[in-house]
Design brief:
The protein is an alpha/beta fold. The chain has 2 domains: 230 residues, Response regulator (Rossmann fold, 3-Layer(aba) Sandwich); 158 residues, Rossmann fold, CATH 3.40.50.2300. The chain is 38% helix and 19% strand. The longest helix has 20 residues.
């Protein structure tokens, strides 16, 4: 199983870089794979840098899904081989390694990226190579490339239902909004859409404030003081819409708790916050803060119980360096993505991207969330269910609300 790292890529280029991952060299790997009747998939998930704790898990779950498919005979008579990389949370490196995987390692599809800036980096690479990137994160939307499969939810299916809930009487009747994000495309675009949405509801610009911090930012004392001051101004119930990512999330939560601000005072809606961000935190003072995703670990149903057992067994069997009892939405979305690709390739009886892409229409898959993922011929977006979660005392999220069905995705926001 080949592996691409930042060090190997920077030391050399072309086939020699792939050769560092194996004594056979890249061209030998490809010939060997073809002779053995394998088909390669590539992973672009970081296992170092600011995104490592959450993103690194996805490399392993892609392998787990591939092993599951291989145990049932593979795809079109071939065994799936997974090539894993480490772009090291370095956005241009995602594109460079992705290009190498597509052009030299001849992967049939890429599964990767967490941040939108890493996806935007890879986008021209897959379009130029006419490849496929399966992207497992909910995100800002406003994009619709034929070379990207958007496995998760755009804002109309995730963010807006969560904000609507907090603004409703069932929530906290939120009237004022402090937007705090990492300084890149996803937080800024989400917040632009939210401001347009609030304007459409007749909410004054004086009801919100927005601040941005660099990626990897950790010292939130001053910003939490600003949130406290914003809340003290009056004028209706305040909430925080949090779009910081990676290691900044637990750092923010820790400071919020240290300053004694509870969810009953100022609820936080963490749009990128997952169960793994709560590891190692005392979540008792964080109880009641919220997130929204297409999957929560506490989702009910046999499909989720089966997935959680499968992951726990895989962690123990393969000595995976992550907790066996923690699952997060992008893991499930990456797992779903591998199965969707395999179903499309089998339906097309081909690994050629144009044929696989034609086969997406009408595909459905029973997601561990309990919802059925569906794809249409309209675009490469998948219909997903939606959960709103509430932090509990056990470093997880209780299901506070969930959609009745999987809403049709709306790629482009009318509020941008």
């Amino acid at each position: 199983m080949s592996r691409f790292t930042r060090r190997s890529f920077l030391q050399t280029t072309g086939l020699a870089a792939a050769a560092l991952a194996s004594p056979l060299g890249a061209s030998s790997i490809i010939r060997s794979a073809q002779a053995a009747g394998t088909v390669k998939l590539g992973c672009l998930f970081s296992s170092s840098g600011t995104m490592a704790n959450i993103e690194g898990r996805l490399n392993h779950v892609v392998r787990m899904a591939a092993d599951e498919i291989n145990a049932k005979g593979g795809v079109n008579g071939r065994t799936i081989e997974v090539a894993v990389s480490d772009p090291a949370s370095d956005w241009p490196l995602y594109a460079q390694i992705g290009k190498q995987m597509l052009e030299q390692d001849k992967v049939a599809a890429l599964f990767g990226c967490w941040t939108s800036v890493s996806r935007k980096s890879v986008l021209p690479v897959v379009e130029q190579a006419n490849g496929l990137l399966f992207y497992p994160l909910h995100f800002e939307g406003d994009e619709n490339s034929k070379n990207v499969v958007y496995v998760n939810s755009p804002p109309a299916s995730s963010v807006l239902p969560a904000v609507d809930y907090l603004m409703s009487e069932d929530g906290v009747s939120a009237k004022r909004f402090f937007m705090l994000g990492s300084d890149y495309v996803w937080p800024r675009t989400i917040n632009k859409q939210l401001k347009g949405y609030w304007k459409s509801k007749g909410i004054s610009e004086s009801a919100w404030k927005e601040e941005y911090v660099p990626l990897g930012f950790s010292n939130f004392q001053t910003l939490v003081n600003q949130i406290r001051a914003f809340a003290d101004q009056g004028g209706g119930k305040p909430i925080v819409v949090l779009t910081v990512v990676g290691s900044s999330i637990p750092d923010f939560l820790r400071e919020f708790a240290n300053q004694g601000i509870k969810a009953t005072d100022v609820p936080v809606l963490g749009l990128d916050m997952v169960e793994a961000d709560l590891e190692g935190l005392n979540t008792e003072p964080l109880v009641g803060h919220l997130n929204c995703w297409a999957y929560l670990q506490n989702a009910k149903g046999d499909a989720n119980a089966k997935f959680l057992k499968q992951w726990a067994d895989y962690v123990k069997t393969k000595n995976v360096p992550f907790k066996a009892d923690v699952a997060i939405d992008p893991m499930v979305s990456a797992y779903d993505a591998v199965h969707l690709w395999a179903m499309a390739a089998a339906k097309a009886n081909s690994f050629d991207v144009p044929e696989v892409r034609k086969a997406f229409a009408g595909l459905s898959f029973d997601c561990p969330s309990g919802y059925k993922i569906q794809m249409t011929a309209e675009n490469n977006y998948a219909s997903r269910g939606v959960f709103i979660g509430s932090v509990n005392e056990k470093q997880g999220f209780d299901v506070l609300w969930q959609s009745k069905d999987a809403p049709k995705p709306v790629p482009f926001s009318p509020y941008s």
